[in-house]
Amino acid sequence: MTPLLFLPGMMCDARLFAPQIAALSAQRMVACAALTTHDTMEALAAEVLSKAPARFALAGLSMGGILAMEVLRQAPERVAGLALLDTNPLAEREEVKAARGPQIDTVKAGHLGDLMQELMIPNYLATPDPAHPISALCLDMALALGPEVFVRQSRALRDRRDQCETLKSYDGPTLILCGDKDRLCPVSRHELMHDLMPQSRLMILRDCGHLPTLEFPKETTAALSRWLEDI
Prior knowledge:
With 231 residues, this protein is an alpha/beta fold. The chain has one domain: Rossmann fold, CATH 3.40.50.1820. Helix content is 48%, strand content 13%. It contains 11 helices and 6 strands. A 6-stranded parallel sheet has the order 2-1-3-4-5-6, with helices on both faces. Strand 5, helix 9 and strand 6 (201-205) form a beta-alpha-beta unit. The longest helix is centred in the middle third of the chain and has 15 residues, at 94-108.
């Protein structure tokens, strides 16, 4: 069977996909890349490709989805199928770019945990809840990766390219999935990707935020399983 490679969101690790890895690894090889060593999408994608199987299914969430599009741009012939979860094909908006510098400065000053808890994690769930186990997990993943990774990933996101043409030229099996309450990557971005890729299947989960793999793990795993049937 075609191997499956997951690409996690910003300041997340394989635990972001723990329910899916547990369910899907019984049928195929499943791996999750670490997006920690470079500060451009181009370099991160090149590293992913250097370690990936010759041909693979690719699933990315948020930053992982953005990186998946760059992997696709660099080596479309190696991507047997594409799953884009709660992500964005466009270059970073200027107002978001402008916020990256102060965020980097805050983290360099030793306040990664505070920034994650105050600015980042409240946007992850459909309803912000600092006491929710998913919020605690997101903080733990971020602290485990550390401030240097935050800085590198922030720069990679800030300087990313628009990938609409990349998506338009891909005709492989594609799943586009998002939560209808995602405040970071709204439904409209996913409708745009679906319009660019007529062969894609668009799935919108009700009452779900930015992290469907953890908020609605059974539904997300089922959608990925159906997508993988065509690969």
